[in-house]
Specification:
InterPro entries: AhpD-like, CMD-like. It holds the Pfam family CMD. This is Carboxymuconolactone decarboxylase-like domain-containing protein. Helix content is 64%, strand content 0%. α4 packs parallel to α7 and α7 crosses α8.
């Protein structure tokens, strides 16, 4: 499930040692732990500050339900072959109410699981954005019947954000904290 063979995922950029953390990185790690995604991206303090504000807004202060958010993130992690993202968000997905069977089904074609209509809408959006970089009219219409303008913007931004994060995690070969 990884863009590189897991055993060969030597980081291309090592996490920043704690002695070199700035206040923004210290605050982020105090909130969610010294995750390698934070301590690696923290090597670019100006970019990290902007990224962590957007990530926090999407992950912790958004309008989407936890379930919808984690469905979109987990499907994106699968589609982008991002083991780090998958592993970290798997716990959040389970906490958001997804069952083990639903988490496993996120790796299958959407028709292979009996998704509820609301779940299927979010997953279809993730698939279409991954495949087409846009949404079909039918998907937009279905989403618009369920979500308001701000939620629609947030859903599209969330999926795009986690594509970007997956690209960075995979390209930089950020290791899961449990790998060492």
């Amino acid at each position: 499930m990884c863009a590189d063979i897991p055993g060969n995922r030597v980081p291309r950029i090592a996490p920043l040692p704690e002695a070199e953390w700035d206040d923004t990185l210290k605050a982020a790690t105090a909130s969610i732990g010294p995750l390698n995604v934070l301590t690696t991206l923290g090597r670019h303090p100006k970019l990290f500050g902007s990224w962590i504000r957007l990530g926090t807004a999407l992950l912790m202060k958004g309008l989407l339900s936890d379930r919808d958010r984690e469905l979109a993130i987990m499907r994106t992690a699968y589609l982008r072959d991002c083991a780090y993202e998958w592993g970290h968000h798997r716990r959040l997905a389970l906490a958001a109410g997804l069952s083990e069977a639903e988490v496993a089904a996120l790796r299958l074609p959407l028709d292979d699981h009996g998704w509820a209509d609301d779940d299927l809408m979010v997953l279809t959006a993730a698939d279409e954005l991954n495949e087409r970089s846009t949404l079909t009219g039918a998907t937009w219409t279905a989403l618009s019947a369920r979500f308001g303008e701000q939620e629609l913007i947030e859903l599209v931004m969330l999926i795009g954000h986690y594509h970007m994060v997956a690209f960075a995690l995979n390209a930089l070969r950020v290791q899961d904290e449990e790998e060492h």
